[in-house]
């Protein structure tokens, strides 16, 4: 048996929360002895009969003696009186905590009782969990599972006390968050106390109407869902509303102001503004779960999804429309937001990365309708119309969003902060921050590696610069060019090799002059953008997986329609052709300023290993994970050099791909700037290439999709972990692979 956390735990009060925690402690043997004090003899008898306590006392002083953990599970208004009573009987190193919904008044009560200073074991707490029923019989050992518990350590709180309480609540399967007292009360006022106040008010308002019977009888699910919390304990909420008075009144003021604005929009028939407000609220709610999922370290994240791929003969055929280009989708929102007039976007990628960009601009006051079936309407606010967001802009997993917006936000009149999920917070941002500082931006990254969060100080006058990129990067180039829109004078960027030019093309589509002279791109600051229509082509980076899949699968015949073939993105086509793929580009045309075409690939011959040309590396940088799968199926050796940037993507794509390939029986050697892959392909034959295995994607969408294609030539099952990020760029990936005849089983692990 493991050593218990505590020798003796004493509960003062034994209602829903206290009895639930007692159940956890008893079931998991976390204490040698559990006792309780409450005024109700019946409650104590019931608790003992249920096996929740070893002894019960009517007086708190009898319960706390010798306890190394005391839990105040009582109404917050009783805190001071109880503390005064038990103070002389508390052990020197006791941990003292509570479970109240407000924290400021609990700390104030403790300050009155301990004028000499708080005990070092005093750590206020608040489990955010509850149920409709109360009392000792209502308690459940799983009440806190997958719920949050907020601890509010004080300056005086000992680290050992915080750590032991954290262990206790984690044993209850709760997520523990530490927060200061004032912040806790402010947050809870908005997220819990105000909704309860609104629910009580609404039900009371309707109950006071003469026709209340009809209203309640015909109320729909929305009313029932919202008003359910008005059935909560009136006595408890009476105390909470007074206990957290200041923060609740501030929340009410904010609600009243927002309600007044909403009323005015309806009264004045302002359809455009009302749609913008409703769309922002809808998107914010959808964005909510992603923001909540943010963790400081990916290694500690629960993997939420995996792909399972079975061996066997597969077919891979059909005509497909790949989702919209992510790079173009990002930029359509950014440029449409700062343009004058209304921009219409079609083919918008409704993946999480692009939606993060869309949400960021909604948070900066831009009215955006959609997306709906790829259609987005953006009501531009002009070059100087963006507003300060009320909190940090959450970029999810999108490095593109963060790097490009770093340039745009550096030039605004307001301060801003960008953050992201666990993966994004590990990615370096100094490559774009450095040239922006040369322009006069005040931009801060985090830690020695220059990772997010990224902070920008507003009201800086930027000046144009002439910057030589040390390495090819379309994102860094674009971040500089976006800042240059507001900068004084000319800004130019010189690239070592051409990179994707979506930014330059789209600026021209919005009427902004951009000069391209060889590898030098320049523009003058101080102009304006004019709204336009943007048609987003299918994303060649997403199409790459189907291109490789068809090239390595016997008798495959796949046509990908309306794929963007921007000349700065076609490295994948050139490299596959050099490897001998049966690939044709058909029906070339222009859409929304971008060249598009249909791409047909057939599995008619074995690929050949090659030394991938370095001049194609910047033109295929995102497609290399898929190309590594093609190389493994090729005859002979494939060598990649000059691709060091792959090591600073969503994952270290060189090392992660090498690890996965080796797991599945492929000999390969990663290098500083590339990889050497020993292909197992045989001319005019289609043997199994991969031996199957378990693959860790490191939550990198391109890694997950690349190894999925390996399933077309595998002799054993492949399991790929951490595939939930596929939705960031290719939300229909598994749907389309199934249509092609290649089945990928999706397993959720929540």
What this model shows, in words?
With 750 residues, the chain is α/β, with parallel strands linked by helices. Helix content is 37%, strand content 21%. It folds into four domains: 6-179, NAD(P)-binding Rossmann-like Domain (Rossmann fold), CATH 3.40.50; 186-269, Orthogonal Bundle (6-phosphogluconate dehydrogenase C-terminal fold); 305-322 and 538-748, Enolpyruvate transferase domain (UDP-n-acetylglucosamine1-carboxyvinyl-transferase, Chain, Alpha-beta prism); 326-535, UDP-n-acetylglucosamine1-carboxyvinyl-transferase, Chain. The strands form eight sheets. Strands 3-2-1-4-5 form a five-stranded parallel beta sheet. Strands 29-30-9-31 form a four-stranded mixed beta sheet. The protein has a four-stranded mixed beta sheet with strand order 10-23-25-24. Helix 16 packs parallel to helix 17 (474-484) and helix 19 (540-552) packs parallel to helix 23.
